[in-house]
Design brief:
Order of helices and strands: HHH
Structural class: mainly alpha
Largest sheet: none
Strand content: under 5%
Helix content: 40-55%
Shape: elongated
Number of helices: 3
Number of strands: 0
Radius of gyration: 25 Å
Length: 81
């Protein structure tokens, strides 16, 4: 019986998880700036992505460059499924 009670207490403690402290208003702006993506962190956003394969092929041929086709396993990366 003691073992069962101990196990239940342990399960309750584990499920409760760690307590997360509240964010103080003074810290909010600093934390928001720290977690916001910085421009230099996402260079792929600077690429002039095209949504038309025909237009991309024409542009690639004109510039002598290859075409990179980016797709997702569960549908369009643009959200058009």
């Amino acid at each position: 019986m003691r073992m069962l009670i101990g196990a239940l207490v342990l399960v309750g403690w584990v499920q409760a998880g760690p307590q997360v402290p509240d964010i103080k208003p003074d810290d909010f702006a600093r934390l928001q700036a720290a977690i916001r993506p910085q421009p230099e962190e996402s260079p792929w956003r600077d690429i002039d992505w095209m949504t038309s394969i025909r237009g991309a092929r024409q542009r690639a041929a004109a510039e002598g460059k290859p075409v990179l086709v980016f797709t997702a396993a569960d549908g369009s990366p643009l959200g058009r499924t």
